[in-house]
Amino acid sequence: MEPLVSGFPLLAQQFKSLFRKNLILSWRSKRSTSLQLFSSAFFIFLIFCIQKALDARFNTTTAFDNVFDPVALVSPPIPPCEDKFYTRLPCFDFVWSGNASSKIGLIVSSIMANNPGRPIPSDKVMSFGTTSEVDDWLFSNPMTCPGALHFSERNATVITYGVQTNSTAVGKQGHFEDPTFKFQIPLQIAAEREIARSLIEDPNFSWVVNLKEFAHPAVATFSAVATVGPTFFLAIAMFGFVFQISSLITEKELKLRQAMTMMGLYDTAYWFSWLMWEGIITLISSLLTVLFGMMFQFDFFLHNNFGVVFLFFFIFQLNMIGFAFMLSAFITQSSSSTTVGFSVFIISFLSQASYPLFDVETCIADLVNIIDLSFPLQIITQFGFPYSTDYSRTYRAIWSVFPPNLLAEGLTLLSGATATPLDPGISWSRRGKCAPNDTECVITINDIYIWLISTFLVWFVLAIYFDNIIPNSSGVRKSVFYFLNPGYWTGKGGKVAEGGICSCTRSVPPPEDVTPDDEDVHEEENTVKQAASEGEVDTNIAVQIRGLVKMYPGTTKIGCCKCEKTSHYHALKGLWVNVAKDHLFCLLGPNGAGKTTAINCLTGITPVTAGDALIYGCSVRSSVGMSNIRRIIGVCPQFDILWDALSGQDHLHLFASIKGLPPASINSVAQKSLAEVMLTEAAKIRAGSYSGGMKRRLSVAIALIGDPKLVILDEPVC
């Protein structure tokens, strides 16, 4: 058989096979992959609907349009009271005071008769003697009259009047009602017209008033992307975030990664294969997000440079993937991934609440208040925290560590650059510059790029670090300062520890010196002890176990309001045995005797407490020795460790590549192995559909890949 691949070629081969594994799993989980890729279409459609609702809500005002030639409003008539929003019936078009004067009575009659386009019926008007009477009536009959006129005849040539309306703006079904233009001005024009005609005694006197606003550019529009964008775009990223955490934890929980490690998997290949795959998914998702935004004709996507927007979404989602890598080290159950994702989303939502829903300029702040726009409850801080000159760089640095905060600020910058139709957006060349009129600018979109890339690297490094120091499913971890050990970098050493990081290991008593009852066992023990003491290495011995001890130490775990202590447990109390080459060796014993523990020690899954074991001269207590051992052994664990979505053929291709078989021989070896365990017809069927016996045979086939010198089978039959 051809020699196994090693070194960098093996690393590249493992990376390629793991990447292919991720591709197959994603392809066969089409629903999850589709959500990752196309969720942006759904959320952008929601933003589009919200934007249209906002546009419809403000279509009665020209404040958000470029007005070059304002249209004049010519002598508007007094509208019927039924036109007022939320009016109560029966209602009155207007009420008036001063009915003690006959001249004023004639003026009011003329107002009613000469109302342009619609004479006002007498039953739609009510008169009073004084203004106090009008106030009392209005208080007792709310929402029944839009306005009142108050007249006073001072002398034969002087008549004064006043107009009283409810100035509160209200909205209904996407429209705003401005009482000033709709009710107050028509009453004012009608009163002045008829008073003038009465005083000059000319009923045909022309009184035409034109009202026209200033020509003006559009003020900042209400952008749905800026308002709900941080939440919705975060939701898009959370799909990839949750799926990534779930995938990593599933492989850890089901010991799939442990199985690959026993075959000689490099951690570098594992992490970078996931990073490359998720990077591609993120790239496609970000590209689709921008394209969908352009398809729905958002100025945010059309006016800002394509590269600026795409890079922003891509780096942010990539940052969230790195964040998922880091958090996965702390989670042991895949069912918790959704809870973690939801928690991150809620925290992000609360932190983003410090940004205003509508990014409007100061010049329209009064208008915003008039039309009763609501701003979000400032759950954490006031608007703009901490990206303004009012806060120090320290606050901004701390705040920027959490990726969703940078997302919200980036969307604010990009939305502000397209706030009006005249704004050109952010070009690629100006991504590192502040807007010309932005006096509060303390961060640019280019700064956000740098922050996102920097924190991504931090998350990725922390993911690898925590993955090493947090106990795995077997309770094994490295020292907190393992990276300071030169042996870690040279591959010549590095001890592992057990228990939690915060657990206090109690004193470890030595194992009891037990003399075997069986004479043959006692003789074997003495033979191994003598060979070990003399330093002899018998070339006919495949495995020599020298006083192997495995003890799980007692620990003291300090929890909330309690201190839990566990006593030590000796799983192996000094095992001495030789396993000859080319022999079948059976390790027998009742449940709990330590058979699986011994196998775990030999395969490097569990660290040895004392003693040693040599496999073809390589020590299991040496990292270099363990690396060499994994290249010459095959392991069938006690329980089947398989991906439900991968077929038998996929499994053999994957493990053969990890083992280091030459690429040209992998396919033939896989076919031969499947035939040997009678799975040829089921080669392309997913392992999740296999029976228990078929899964066991597949596990045996995996253990035999690469023609290993030593095959360890832990209960290989069902």
From TrEMBL:
Residues 573-717 form the ABC transporter domain. InterPro entries: ABC2_TM, ABC_transporter-like_ATP-bd, ABCA, P-loop_NTPase. The keyword Membrane applies. Signal peptide: none annotated. It is a multi-pass membrane protein. One of its GO terms (molecular function) is ABC-type transporter activity. It comes from the Eukaryota. Keywords: Membrane, Transmembrane, Transmembrane helix. The keyword Disulfide bond does not apply. It is found in: Membrane. One of its GO terms (cellular component) is membrane. The chain crosses the membrane at residues 232-250, 271-296, 308-331, 448-470. Residues 208-465 form the ABC-2 type transporter transmembrane domain. Belongs to the ABC transporter superfamily. ABCA family. CPR flippase (TC 3.A.1.211) subfamily. PANTHER family: ABC TRANSPORTER A FAMILY MEMBER 1-RELATED (PTHR19229:SF205), ATP-BINDING CASSETTE TRANSPORTER SUBFAMILY A ABCA (PTHR19229). This is ABC transporter domain-containing protein. It comes from Rhododendron griersonianum.
